[in-house]
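[step 3/7] fold_predict: job queued, chain A
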Amino acid sequence: MKIALIQMKVQKDNDSNIQIACGRISEAAKAGADLVMLPEMFCCPYETVNFPVYAQPDGGVNWQALSECAKENRVYLVAGSMPERESEAIYNTSYVYNRCGEQIAKHRKMHLFDVDIKDGQRFCESETLTAGSKVTVFDTEFGRMGLMICFDIRFPELARLMALHGAKAILVPAAFNLTTGPVHWELNFRSRAVDNQVFLLGCSPARDMGGSYHAYGHSIVVSPWGRVLAQLDETEGILYCDLDLDETEEIREQLPLLKARRTDVYTLF
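[step 4/7] structure written:
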């Protein structure tokens, strides 16, 4: 399968972001992409105060536009993430559409980015967001995949559950910043890939030093062996990579980590 990760700058106007995203999706489809992924909060400047302002319900304008875009271009679309409103709650939500534009998965970010890094950045998503509570896997013609959002990748238990539920690839719309990105971005993706012997795909916004949030960029694809197969820099672009998800089984036969787990002694004291 051919995947395309769209690393785009985030504008202040929601409709402009949707238009740009759909244009990039069409470009990727013409290049032969089977699955296209957008970044975390691709339609909303990444600030907690913005999430309630930009939030839309399931089936809203953005949802409809992305569904139609997936259908028109006959691609699987992992629609980054966007603020989702349900009653009084706001979630950081990623939707997945199949080639017919039908929603086949939905993940609400489970681990909210609440950090206060010394000499770094303070960010508190829980000021306006509610955490999700479901592990998300979905099936495609190429195999089963897992879906998480940004900070979720730092929690090994979540990726392991996805692998145990049959995921051969884990998709991660994300927006690491310039404090954590240079030291932890590639490390996290390679670690989760090796731990679970799955492909890890991370899609970031492009860096915009004129914007309010400075994303690290460096959208990435890592193999089940922990090799970086492809990676962008911080600028706008589309990262293409050909994947054979059957490679996960080959790696697991050679190095049977999941089979060798000692579940008989893994207990909490």
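[step 5/7] annotate
The longest strand covers residues 89-97.
The chain has a mean pLDDT of 96.
exit 0
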